[in-house]
Amino acid sequence: MCLSGLLNQGYDGMMQRLDLSQPGLPDLQFVLMVAALCTSEVETFNAPISVRETVFNRCWSLLHEGPAPVKKEERVLDLMLGDEVMLEALVTVIRATFEEYGFLELTWEHPPSEPSRESTPEVRPLVERIEKLYPPPDDVEPSSPSSPS
After folding, report:
1. What are the beta bridge partners of residue 16?
2. Are residues 85 and 31 part of one domain?
3. Do residue 75 and residue 120 come from a single domain?
4. C-beta separation of 7 from 111 below 8 A
5. Are 104 and 64 within one domain?
6. Distance from the CA of 9 to the CA of which of 1, 62, 99, 112 falls in 20 to 30 A?
7. Using only C-alpha atoms, what is the Rg of the chain?
8. What is the residue range of 130's domain?
9. What tens digit of pLDDT does each residue of 51-98 get?
């Protein structure tokens, strides 16, 4: 079962799964999802921290010349300047690295959550395009540029 099917059905306490060879997600969403999982503190994620760090660091090295940051809040992949070739390279690195460590799918148990911070104005057009392509289920409010506190 792909991740998108689980998200559309809502969280019901089941283990979520992401098949690395057939994720059922566009490449950009796949890379962003895996990067988020690799930098998360989700305890039920089936990949150990050492593998998560290796995946993230290899992705980082495709985008930057220097070493990956150590501080958690700085460990974010900025894909805004990348192109389709870079995206394909990231997908390949992610799959190859997890396969190197014996993972064919990623699993974790964690309910979907609201974003921890608002989207920046620069990325808002991308978020809006993604929301048009993949509208949220009827029982979920669409994200707004600024939410009341």
Report:
1. 108
2. yes
3. no
4. no
5. yes
6. 99
7. 16
8. 115-149
9. 999 999 999 999 999 999 999 889 998 888 788 999 999 999 999 999
Q: Are 101 and 75 in a shared domain? A: yes
Distances (CA, A) of 43 to 39, 48, 57, 68, 110: 12, 9, 20, 22, 9
- Whether residue 119 is found in the same domain as residue 106: no
CA distance 59 to 32: 11
Pair 44, 110: CB distance under 8 Å? yes
Indicate if the alpha-carbon torsion angle 2, 18, 40, 67 is positive or negative. negative
- Token pair belonging to 75: 């460990």
28, containing H or E segment: helix 27-39
CA distance 19 to 33: 12
Residue 13 in contact with residue 112, Cβ under 8 Å?
no
Domains: count for the chain: 2
Calpha distance 89→83 (Å, rounded): 10
pTM value? 0.68
